[in-house]
Amino acid sequence: MTTDFQNWASQRQTAIETFLDRRLPGTDCVPVRLHQAMRYSVLGGGKRVRPLLAFAAGELSQADDQRVTIVAAAVELIHAYSLVHDDMPCMDDDILRRGKSTCHIEFDEATALLTGDSLQTLAFELLSEKRLSDDADTQLMMIKQLANASGSRGMAGGQAFDLDNVGKTLTLPELEFMHIHKTGALIRAAVMLGARCSNRLSDAQLEKLDHFAKCVGLAFQVVDDLLDAEATTATLGKTAGKDAENNKPTYVSILGIREARDRAEKLQYDADRVLNEFGNAAIRLRQVTDFIIKRKF
Amino acid sequence: MTTDFQNWASQRQTAIETFLDRRLPGTDCVPVRLHQAMRYSVLGGGKRVRPLLAFAAGELSQADDQRVTIVAAAVELIHAYSLVHDDMPCMDDDILRRGKSTCHIEFDEATALLTGDSLQTLAFELLSEKRLSDDADTQLMMIKQLANASGSRGMAGGQAFDLDNVGKTLTLPELEFMHIHKTGALIRAAVMLGARCSNRLSDAQLEKLDHFAKCVGLAFQVVDDLLDAEATTATLGKTAGKDAENNKPTYVSILGIREARDRAEKLQYDADRVLNEFGNAAIRLRQVTDFIIKRKF
Q1: Residue in B140, B146, B165, B179 to test binding to A, most A beta-carbons within 10 Å
Q2: What value, to the nearest 5°, has the Cα angle with vertex A38 and ends A133 and A11?
């Protein structure tokens, strides 16, 4: 990771943090406990991988930074909502997230439920309250894309598929189906929404970018599985080895660690090939991809 | 209730049911269990009060019926998601809704959580996938309004405020704050989104309509509290007397039944006064208001 990229990423991470800090209702705003829990669940943590992808895609399409900040924040809110609900006792029953207590532990289950609900809603509020694209129709398309990526045929559907198959043996295609939905769809939305903040890319270019995003989304999950299998709780900041303990199907459980690593590298190669067609304009996307796929190895 | 209104309402209830039946993912669509639970929680039940308000407001602004159907369905999905989550063990812990088992009883808690999440997402998907207003900017405003009405400073915020105050004594202003958010905001959104499906109403007219919607929203809650206090489980189709049992503050617990009834009638009077300014064009809104406030008495 170059200093240049580190600076770029750190500036964007700060921009997202600052924006979300200002935009989330304050803790003086009734209902106080809910707003505390929302801020607790969103602020001060996470690598902001999806926002970084949105920013990098926004640079490719030379989009306005303020627009991209809002779009990136919306995607991050969807991600944050999914983590809050995913950690609840009826789902993964996790007590640690980003190195601190999960929302339902720090507050209570009912508050965690409403926190996730409200973070999702806020994402759509962000996407509709200011002009974020060159025309309003494109903005409607962006909202549709985020909704599609988040719902029962996107992220939430992937989680449901995951739950349905705990303890079962999955084939590789089934596993990929799960990940394309569970994490891939939102990563794809992050890239596409970032790019659509300006109309500069052609439909053909957007299609290529979408293919890139699919590869990165899948690679991201393979790496996540590898991290869970290899890392300790201390370096990961969340309870490690949960997947194996819960007997959840992962790339590692199906392919083994070595083959899972190969798969991550192959996906990165495919992603790189798309980016090469964009030349120098894709430098940030290339760096973010490296950052995602090579993190912690 | 006149036959004319019964026919009108029944046609709209069928239209919403048909639309939602077609638009909700089929039970052959993976993840099957999640889609079964979504359909179970939305279809075949409920008075569709919010859709009826949206349709009536749409008639006032002479909006296209197909647009209003989609908008009405989106509002109903938000309502349905809130019921699914509200019934969960960490919230109201209810086992009966609309005369059948609640979602987490019929399926399981994790599925109920994801069902509510996905129904919310689908609402925003509906509002963004087709043109629903005379211009795209108005449609963005409609999305913003629904998000605002649903989130932490709307419906979910009202639920959080409610939970925070179980067992406590509320003042009347605190109780009204709760209801304006918990149920009022979404009812207001139903009316305003229905009306905004066409640009025919002036800003001044929309403002009046908004005031009407606030009165109806509050009246609706007063009646709901009265129903809970008076009705039996059999006629209500959900567990009756839960509010008193849970020691929840309601209009009835603060004002008593007689004064709560007076309050409902006063609110209806205020609502009627606004509608009178619209003359004959508001006939359906007048009828729906009667239907909401006088139901079951």
Answers
A1: B140
A2: 50
